Amino acid sequence: MQVPAHFEYERASSVQHALELLARWGPEARLVAGGHSLIPMMKLRLARPEALIDINDLTDLSYIRLAPAGTGAAAGGDSGGDSGGDSGGGSELAIGAMTRHADLLASPVVGEHYPIFHDAERVIADPIVRNRGTVGGSLCQADPSEDLSAAFAAVGATAVIQGRGTSRTVPVREFHTGPYETALAAGEMLVEVRVPVRPGGGSAYQKVERRVGDWAVAAAGAALWLDGETIRDVGIGLTAVGAEHFHAPEAEAALRGTAATEENFARAGALAAQHCNPIADQRGPVDYKRHLAGELTLRALRKAAARARGSE
Ligand SMILES: Cc1cc2nc3c(=O)[nH]c(=O)nc-3n(C[C@H](O)[C@H](O)[C@H](O)COP(=O)(O)OP(=O)(O)OC[C@H]3O[C@@H](n4cnc5c(N)ncnc54)[C@H](O)[C@@H]3O)c2cc1C
Fold first, then answer.
1. CB distance 120 to ligand 1 below 6 Å
2. Does this model's pTM top 0.85?
3. Ligand 1 lined by 144 (C-beta under 6 Å)
4. N- to C-terminal Cα distance for the chain?
5. Which CATH class, in words, describes the domain spanning 8-54?
6. Taking the domain 201-309, which CATH number applies?
7. What is the pLDDT of residue 76?
8. What pairs with residue 160 in β-bridges?
9. Domain ranges of the chain
10. Mapping DSSP to helix (H, G, I), strand (E, B) and coil, where does residue 235 land?
11. How far apart are CA 148 and CA 181, in angstroms?
12. DSSP-H helix ranges across 133-248
C-alpha cells in the first residue's frame, strides 16, 4: 500500500481564504482540487508538500458561462451550473477553475460553441476521474501529455490568475512554461479560463491512446474560422509530442488566409509533425508519435472545417 508522507491539512472557505493560507504556509504548501494528479504524486513521493490546502468548498469557482468579452465571471456572479446567455460575437466562455471534467463534458453551451472540449473530455481518463478532476487542476498540473492544455491552446484561451490583491491574465499558450511548470507565481492561483467566441468557427480533437482511459500516445486539437472557404484564423494544439507550449505555430501560420482544402490540411499536419519534439517511451517510438502528430492534426482540421461549414 502506498501512502503519502505526513502533511498538514487546511480547508479553504473562499478564494481569499485560500490565498491567505497559501501566503501563511509559503512555497511548501499546495492547493488540492480533484487530487487526481497531486495525490498519486504524493503517494509516489514525487511531491511532498508540507500542507495541502483543499479548495473543494470553493463552489463559486465551478461554472461555465457565456459572458460579454473581457468581463469573465471570476469576480463574482452566480455560482454553479451552465448558463447559455447571449450567443455570437463579442462574447466568451468563462470556465471556473473548479469546473469538473464531467461538467465540461455535459455542458450544452460548450458543445454548441466549442465541441473540441466534448471531443477531448470523452477521452480523458474514465468517469471516476472526470467526476473529480478539474479544469484548473489539469492546467496547473501541466503534464506534457495533458489533453485540456492542447484544447485550450487551440482555441486561444486566456488564464485568469489571482493573488492577494492582484488579478492578471495570461494567454494559455504562455501559461505553461515547461513540463509541470506554469506561469503561476508563489501565492497565486488559477481562478478562471476564458475562451473567445467568434462566428464562423468549428473545432475538433483527435487522440490516439493505447486503451480506453489512457493518457495520449499523441493528440491534436484544431479550431478554425472560415470566410466562405478561406481560413480566416486557425489554432492547433498538440499534446504528448513535445510541442512547445502545446501548440503548432508553424502549421497555423501556413494555413491562415489559405483555402480550407485537404491538401492544405495535410501540409499543416506535416509542419506540425516536423516541428514537434516527441520522446520515445512505453507509449511508442519517436517516429510513430511524429507520424501521429501529423495525421491527427490533419483529421482534427478536417473535422473542425466540416463543423464550421455546418456539415457535421
Ligand atoms: C487514472 C487517471 C487517468 C488520467 N488520464 C488522463 C488523460 O487521459 N488525459 C488527461 O488530460 N488527464 C488525465 N488524468 C489527469 C486528470 O485529468 C486530473 O484530473 C488532472 O490532471 C488534475 O486535476 P485535479 O483537479 O485532480 O488536480 P489536483 O491533482 O488536485 O492538482 C494538480 C496540481 O494543480 C494544482 N492546482 C489545482 N487547482 C489549482 C488552482 N485552481 N490554482 C492553482 N493550482 C492548482 C495543485 O496544487 C497540483 O499541483 C488522469 C488521471 C488519472 C488518475
1. no
2. yes
3. no
4. 48
5. alpha beta
6. 3.30.390.50
7. 41
8. 169, 192
9. 8-54, 59-197, 201-309
10. strand
11. 15
12. 135-141, 147-155, 172-175
